[in-house]
Structure to design on (264 residues):
């Protein structure tokens, strides 16, 4: 991983020629470019792990990205430099630049502002292909204005399922009784279960119940906590962002800096 310069503002900083940045030419020389002098770039969300878009970058775009912290590419359609967001305002803040084992592709690990796809979708991947019945035919579903077929990691898939259960409950279209819907509709039960699951997770340590049991109880606690987040309208992305911002801060210092809770 190669670190990039952090910039709080969206406006691009002054970019130095690669020769004036120690180690830049050596790094850029180490990459394997295609016949057009480009490498493929995937943009990955730093908090959720989502793959947001793919584009290409030349030496100048990589040099600029690493200095400004803003995702910059070589646009094949525009035939020139393209800093994502200069027109739309949907900048992509790059937290790190990663190379693959063959050094012919790049990941920009990023924190985006707004949608990444030119269609207005959050991600450029929103269509899913399936081989029905294991033998066919191949069926493809998805559209830029729907999120049903967006690829999701485990936590995001669980979050989506919880939201689906909530919507079915509110519309009265539940196919069968749902534990999730029951929790959403009964906050007293939900809070009771969270406290119960937290206690059971602690017990796995105190009673030395083993790793498998600890993983199971942690999964139970996480699920119930995510239902509570849904009830309060807090996306998992917000929680992950808070965790990321705490990486560089002492836990003792962070707790000391918190505002006192209001008295009950």
């Amino acid at each position: 991983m190669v670190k990039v310069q952090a910039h709080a503002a969206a406006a691009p900083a002054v970019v130095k020629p690669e020769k004036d940045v120690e180690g830049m030419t050596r790094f850029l020389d180490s990459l394997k470019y295609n016949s057009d002098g480009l490498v493929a770039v995937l943009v990955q969300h730093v908090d959720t792990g989502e793959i947001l878009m793919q584009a290409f970058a030349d030496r100048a775009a990589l040099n600029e990205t690493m200095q400004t912290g803003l995702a910059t590419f070589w646009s094949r359609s525009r035939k020139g430099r393209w800093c994502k967001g200069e027109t739309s305002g949907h900048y992509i803040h790059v937290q790190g630049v990663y190379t693959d084992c063959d050094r012919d592709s790049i990941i920009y690990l990023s924190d985006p502002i707004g949608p990444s796809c030119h269609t207005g979708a959050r991600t450029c991947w929103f269509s899913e292909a399936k081989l029905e019945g294991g033998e066919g035919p191949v069926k493809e579903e998805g559209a830029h204005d729907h999120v049903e077929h967006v690829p999701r990691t485990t936590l995001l898939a669980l979050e989506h399922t919880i939201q689906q259960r909530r919507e079915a409950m509110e519309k009265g279209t539940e196919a069968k009784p749902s534990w999730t819907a029951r929790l959403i509709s009964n906050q007293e039960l939900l809070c009771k279960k969270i406290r119960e699951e937290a206690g059971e997770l602690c017990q796995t340590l105190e009673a030395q119940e083993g790793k498998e049991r600890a993983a199971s109880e942690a999964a139970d606690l996480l699920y119930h906590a995510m239902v509570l987040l849904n009830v309060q309208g807090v996306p998992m992305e917000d929680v992950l962002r808070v965790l990321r911002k705490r990486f560089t801060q002492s836990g003792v210092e962070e707790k000391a800096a918190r505002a006192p809770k209001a008295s009950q």
In short: The chain has a mean pLDDT of 92.
